[in-house]
Specification:
The protein is 50% helix and 12% strand. With 713 residues, it is α+β, with helices and mostly antiparallel strands. Strands 5, 8, 9, 12 and 13 form a five-stranded antiparallel beta sheet that branches. The protein has a four-stranded antiparallel beta sheet with strand order 7-6-10-11. A hairpin with a 5-residue loop joins strand 1 and strand 2 (114-115). Helix 3 runs antiparallel to helix 4 (66-80), helix 9 (161-180) runs antiparallel to helix 10 and helix 17 packs antiparallel against helix 18 (377-430). It is flat, with a radius of gyration of 45 Å. Mean pLDDT is 74; it is low at 83-134, 209-215, 221-245, 326-341, 619-625 and 684-696. Residues 84-108 are annotated as: Disordered. Residues 361-420 form a coiled coil.
Length: 713
C-alpha cells in the first residue's frame, strides 16, 4: 500500500520542529525516513523521469539495495543519453544476444568503487556500466540543489566545480550575445541563470564542511517540499534581491562588458561613493565595538570595511572602463591600433632625432668654426651659445665624478679609522695600555679629519681638498686582525676573571630609550618646559658563580658606571676593569667553580637609573600620591648573555654584542666588552708563563701611512 502523501508532509513538518527544538539527529533521521517513504514499493520500471529515478537510486542506496540503485541510475542515464537509450530500449526483442562472459564482470557501484562480486543481468546494464565518464546531468538537474546534495552525500559523482563554472561562463557568453543583438530580456535571463549555477556550486562546496547538520538550506528545502515547488532551489529574488541589486562579491570575477550588460538589463548598481560610505560606516562600527571591548566583532567589522573599500576601487575601475568605451567594439579598436602603428612608424624616428643625446662641446666647437668659415654669422652665434652650455654641462659632470671619487676614498679611510679605534680600545685595555692609548688618540683624530674633509668637499667641491698618502713617519699603527688577540698576553697563573665594559654604542637607536623620549614629550606637551630624557646609565653584571664556598647559592654581582667625560655622547665609555677571583686547584670553592662553569652564564644588563629631582618640601611631599624618583625602578634598556662554558676552551671573550630583550629580540645599541682569565678551565694543567707563549696568538700590527688631508686656501 502506497504511503499517504499527507503522512509524508507531516513527517517533514515534524522533522522541522525537531530541528528547531535542537534535536538535529532526530530531524535528520525523520527527514531521511520521509524521503524513503516517497519511493516505497517503487522500482526503476515504475518511473520514467530521470530526476525521480536518481532520487530513487539514492533511497535504494541508503537501504543497501545496490542492485536496485544501480538499475535506477542506469535507467536515468539511458534517458539522459540518446545513444544509450537507443541500445537500452529496443523496439523489438532482440532475436539473439551475444554470450556474456562466464567469469564475473567488474562493475562500478554507486560509490564509484569496483565490485568484483556483482554480475550484470542484461547486456544493456553492462554497456551502461562500462560507459566512460560520470552520470550525465541536465542543466535543470544541476540547478536542483536537493538532488545534488543527496547524491553527493550518498557518495555518487556529481558535477564538479569546473562543470558549474563552465555552465556559468557559457550562460554569461550567451547573455553578451543577446545584449549585442539588442535582446535585453534574454540577456538578463541568461545572466541570472549563470548566477544560479554559481550559487548552487557555492552551496555544494559549503556542504563539504558541515554536511551532517540541518542548516538553513535544509529548512528552505523543507519549505519548498511542503509547498510542492519543483523549481530551482534558489529563486532570482534570493540572488538579485527584489530591486535586482547585484552582489559586490561578484566584482572580482566580472569584466566591464559583463557589468555593462547588467546595467543595461536594469539591474541596480551602487556607485563607488555609496560603497565607500558603507566602508566608512563599518570602520566606525569597528571602532565602537573595540571601545566596548568586543574585539571579535570589531575585527570582523574592520575586515568588512577593507573588503568594501576594495570593492569600491574595483567598481570604479570597471565603470571608468565602460565610460571609455570598454572592449565592445573590438574590431574598431583593432583598426585604431593598426592606424596608430602606422602613425608611430612615421613619428618615432622623428622623436628619436628630437631626443637624441646632446652633442659634446668639441663637436659643437667644430660646427661653430665651420659656420664662421661659411660666413653664417647668425647661425654660428646661436650655436656658440650651445657650445658654452655644453662646456658648463661637461664641467659640472666632471666635477661630480671627481667629488664621487674623493668622497669614496674618504669614506674608506673613515671606515678604517673607526675600526682601528675599536680594536685599539681592546688593545689598550688588554695588551698594552700606554701604546694603545697613544694609538687610540691618533686614530680618533684621524676619524675627525676624515669627517671634516668630507664636509669640505661636499660644500666647496673636489678642488678644496688635496688627497695624498703621507710618506713621513707618523708613528701610527694598524691592527690587521679582529679582537681575537684579547687574552694573548694573559698570565696563565692568574686566577682572576677580568671584566671590562668598554663602551656602549648607538644607545640613541635603542627602542626602549626612544619610547621613553616619546612619553616624555607627551607629558610635557601642555607645559612650558620641554622635557627630554637624559640617560643615567649603569651596567650590572651577574656572574652565575659563587663568590666563595660559604655562599654557594649566591652569584657574583658587579656594577659599572660611565666616565663623566662621555655622558650624553653617542658612544659612552665606562670605568676601568673589575676583577673577580676564580680559584683553581682542589679547594672547595675551586671545585664548585669547575663543576658549574660549563653550564652557567654571565648576564649583563644595561639600565637607565632615574635621576632624582630636587626634593620637594615636606608638606608638599606629604600631599603627593606619586612615587618619588628614588622609588622608581631602573629601566632595562637591554641585556647581553654570555656562556661561561666558552672559558673551557679559551681564555677570553671579546667583541661588540647587540642588546636584546628576554625573547632575544634586538632592541638597538651595542655593548663593547671583554672578559679574560689566565688560562682555559678545560686544561688539565695550568700552563707556565713561559711554556705556553709559542701557542698564543700574536697581534698582527704594521705601520700605517695616513692620508694627508690638506684644505686649499
Amino acid at each position: 500500500m502506497a504511503p499517504d502523501s499527507q503522512s509524508i508532509v507531516d513527517m517533514k513538518l515534524r522533522a522541522l520542529e525537531l530541528k528547531k527544538a535542537g534535536d538535529v539527529e532526530g530531524a535528520k533521521a525523520l527527514l531521511a525516513q520521509a524521503r524513503d517513504l516517497e519511493f516505497q514499493g517503487l522500482s526503476a520500471e515504475d518511473l520514467d523521469d530521470s530526476a525521480s529515478l536518481k532520487k530513487l537510486a539514492v533511497s535504494l542506496k541508503r537501504k543497501g539495495d545496490l542492485d536496485g540503485a544501480r538499475a535506477a541510475l542506469a535507467k536515468a542515464q539511458r534517458l539522459d543519453s540518446p545513444e544509450v537509450a537507443a541500445v537500452a530500449v529496443p523496439s523489438e526483442p532482440s532475436e539473439s544476444k551475444p554470450d556474456l562472459p562466464t567469469d564475473r564482470a567488474q562493475t562500478t557501484d554507486i560509490n564509484g568503487k569496483l565490485d568484483n562480486e556483482e554480475t550484470f543481468e542484461t547486456e544493456e546494464e553492462a554497456e551502461i556500466a562500462t560507459e566512460e565518464g560520470p552520470v550525465v546531468f541536465s542543466e535543470e538537474e544541476m540547478l536542483d540543489f536537493d538532488m545534488m546534495f543527496e547524491f553527493k552525500k550518498s557518495g555518487m559523482d556529481v558535477p564538479s566545480v569546473e562543470d558549474y563554472q563552465a555552465k556559468a561562463l557559457a550562460c554569461k557568453k550567451v547573455a553578451v550575445k543577446f545584449k549585442q543583438h539588442g535582446d535585453i530580456e534574454k540577456a538578463k535571463d541568461s545572466l541570472k541563470r549563470a548566477k544560479l549555477f554559481e550559487a548552487v556550486m557555492t552551496r555544494l562546496n559549503e556542504c563539504d564542511e558541515a554536511e551532517d547538520e540541518i542548516n538553513e538550506e535544509d529548512e528552505a528545502w523543507l519549505m519548498k517540499e511542503l509547498n510542492q515547488d519543483d523549481s530551482a532551489f534558489f529563486d532570482e529574488s534570493i540572488l538579485f534581491g527584489d530591486d535586482e541589486v547585484f552582489s559586490l562579491d561578484d566584482l572580482d570575477d566580472m569584466d566591464a562588458e559583463m557589468l555593462k550588460v547588467m546595467i543595461d538589463a536594469g539591474i541596480k548598481i551602487p556607485t563607488p561613493d555609496e560603497v565607500l560610505d558603507l566602508s566608512q560606516e563599518k570602520k566606525v562600527l569597528a571602532l565602537a565595538l573595540k571601545q566596548d571591548g568586543n574585539l571579535v566583532g570589531a575585527k570582523s567589522a574592520l575586515v568588512e570595511s577593507k573588503s568594501l573599500r576594495s570593492h569600491a576601487d574595483r567598481l570604479k575601475e570597471l565603470l571608468e572602463e565602460i565610460s571609455n568605451g570598454g572592449d565592445e567594439e573590438g574590431i574598431e579598436d583593432l583598426e585604431k591600433l593598426l592606424l596608430l602603428s602606422e602613425v608611430a612608424a612615421e613619428v618615432i624616428p622623428e622623436l628619436k632625432k628630437a631626443i637624441a643625446p646632446a652633442k659634446s662641446a668639441d663637436e659643437l666647437k667644430q660646427e661653430v668654426l665651420k659656420l664662421r668659415e661659411e660666413r653664417r654669422i647668425k647661425e654660428a652665434t646661436a650655436l656658440f651659445k650651445l657650445y658654452k652650455q655644453a662646456l658648463a654641462r661637461e664641467a659640472e659632470a666632471a666635477e661630480l665624478e671627481e667629488q664621487k671619487k674623493i668622497l669614496s676614498i674618504l669614506c674608506e679611510e673613515m671606515q678604517i679609522a673607526k675600526e682601528q679605534e675599536r680594536l685599539f680600545l681592546f688593545y689598550e685595555r688588554f695588551i698594552d695600555s700606554r701604546s694603545g692609548a697613544l694609538q687610540l688618540v691618533k686614530w680618533k683624530d684621524y676619524t675627525l679629519k676624515c669627517g671634516e674633509a668630507t664636509k669640505t668637499v661636499e660644500t666647496n667641491g673636489s678642488k678644496s681638498v688635496v688627497l695624498a698618502r703621507s710618506g713621513e713617519a707618523t708613528n701610527m699603527l694598524k691592527i690587521n686582525d679582529d679582537e681575537d688577540f684579547v687574552g694573548s698576553t694573559s698570565d696563565p697563573t692568574d686566577e682572576r676573571l677580568e671584566v671590562a665594559i668598554l663602551s656602549l654604542v648607538d644607545i640613541h637607536e635603542n627602542k626602549i630609550y626612544q619610547k621613553m623620549q616619546k612619553e616624555a614629550k607627551k607629558a610635557s606637551a601642555g607645559g612650558s618646559d620641554k622635557m627630554e630624557v637624559k640617560l643615567c646609565l649603569r651596567v650590572d653584571v651577574v656572574i652565575q658563580l659563587p663568590p666563595n664556598e660559604k655562599k654557594s647559592d649566591e652569584n657574583i654581582n658587579l656594577s659599572f658606571l660611565p666616565l663623566e667625560s662621555s655622558r650624553g655622547a653617542a658612544t659612552v665609555d665606562f670605568a676601568p676593569s673589575q676583577f673577580v677571583t676564580l680559584p683553581r686547584g682542589k679547594s672547595q670553592h675551586a671545585k664548585i667553580i669547575q663543576r658549574r662553569i660549563g653550564r652557567k652564564r654571565i648576564q649583563i644588563s644595561v639600565l637607565h637609573v632615574h635621576i632624582p629631582s630636587e626634593k620637594p618640601s615636606s608638606w608638599l611631599k606629604s600631599w603627593s600620591s606619586k612615587p618619588s624618583e628614588e622609588e622608581k625602578e631602573p629601566v632595562l634598556l637591554g641585556r647581553v648573555v654570555l656562556e661561561l662554558k666558552d672559558f673551557l676552551i679559551k681564555n677570553a671573550i671579546a667583541g661588540d654584542f647587540k642588546l636584546i630583550d628576554s625573547g632575544k629580540r634586538e632592541l638597538g645599541g651595542m655593548l663593547r666588552l671583554g672578559l679574560q682569565v689566565g688560562a682555559p678551565f678545560g686544561e688539565v694543567k695550568v700552563a707556565s708563563s713561559t711554556g705556553d707563549d709559542t701557542a698564543r696568538t700574536a697581534v698582527d700590527i704594521e705601520p700605517f701611512s695616513p692620508m694627508e688631508l690638506n684644505a686649499k686656501v
